[in-house]
Write a structure and sequence with these properties.
Radius of gyration: 31 Å
Largest sheet: 13 strands, mixed
Protein name: Malectin-like domain-containing protein
Membrane topology: Single-pass type I membrane protein
Subcellular location: Membrane
Organism: Hibiscus sabdariffa (roselle)
Distance between the termini: 123 Å
InterPro entries: ANXUR1/2-like, Malectin-like_Carb-bd_dom
Number of strands: 29
Amino acid sequence: MENLLTRLGFSFFLYFFISFDISLSFSPVDNYLVNSGAFLDSTVDNRRFVSDSSGSTHAHLSSPQSFSLCAGTLLPTLPPIYHTARVFKAPSKYVFDVKDPGTHMVRLHFHRFSSPNLNLVDSRFHVLVNGLVALTNFSGGNSLGPRVIEYLLCVHSEKLEITFVPDGESNFAFVNAIEVISAPRDLIPEIAQSLNGDKVENFEGLNQQAFEVVHRVTVGGAKVTPFNDSLWRTWLPDDDYLKLSEGSTRVYFSGKIKYQEGAASRQVGPDNVYDSARLIESKNASIPNVNLSWEFPVIEDYKYLVRLHFCDIASVSLGLLFFNVYVNGHLAYKDLDPSAVTNYLLASPFYLDFVVDADRSGIVSVAVGPSNKSMAYAVDAILNGVEIMKMNNLMGSFDGKLPAELVMKGSPRRSVDFLLPLIALVCLLLSLSVFMRRRMDKVDSVTWSKLPMDVPETTPKQGKQQLSSKV
């Protein structure tokens, strides 16, 4: 009995220690967790989501027509924040006080459940985050389970607003939960590398941009849940994105990941991402002539931030690993030497940021492979994690080409239907104006001469003949 109590006590201590270490590794100044539509607070992964019905000052809800909705069937496997939702029948917004200006993470939680009164599948709405168009004609996602959409944006004002706009009078908007968290200073650096074909240039002001997280994967490892990430992120396995893996192997590391100041911190990537990888390894005197490649579906006509995570957890010694990095089929980094990047320390993580344009293929591809400096009987390429983040377009939108002003009217689709005839009418009027101006210019181009005052009188016929001779 005493041994059992001892083991239970040790297990509780270990669980408490792990939870304490993870939760306190980063303590954000702004940390708003909203349980939308719920009457009670809920705890998920040791995080307390506060009810927006309690009248607390946690988040200011401005909604002329909204109500709480509870799922008809409560699934015990789902976190409690997905059992309720806040439903909006008119444009509404949450307002959060910003105490720590800079990059903030905004996560919107959606789960389309049904109830006796309403089915959330029938929703259609638009979402704006601090004036940026985040979602248009959205209905909560196509998946059966919950969907979390994450944005990172630089906030300089004292308020951050999230606005929900139903699409038309007969529709409604909803949300299950919201997270607004101030990010670590080193999460988004100031400079990245911009790729245009094989041309590489500096992209400055990266930390002033806004992003939507499209893909976040751990390479070679298992799924990483928010409980195991200091910023409460989810990292999916890379299996669905891996295209060419011939000659590659997975590797797992049980030692300590050695974070260094100025490189990747635990907030940039957790241990669970850096302690696994896929690699190409030469097992004889010849170097494999293969690349490891991944393909990620994206939407064209946007720029994307591609972040690649590296940590040499496989080499037996320093200075043995050299490889090339490719993005969208172009050489992004030649002869990458992890030992030199990490000041000659194994198992020390770092990352590379590239800004690329998405073409009509709808794919952002990533690949690593041996370089001219790769060595036999050594690791010849490695990758630990990938993040793909969409950047907003010139209209300030992550979803379409309409500005926030039109989206706020409630129906971007009808706005487009109205704008197209208007644009056609303007073009027609401009064409008529150009045509009339050319006619007038043609008339004005005729040279008229003043008749002399001392000429003798002439008949009309003579006058016409004289005038025509001067023209």
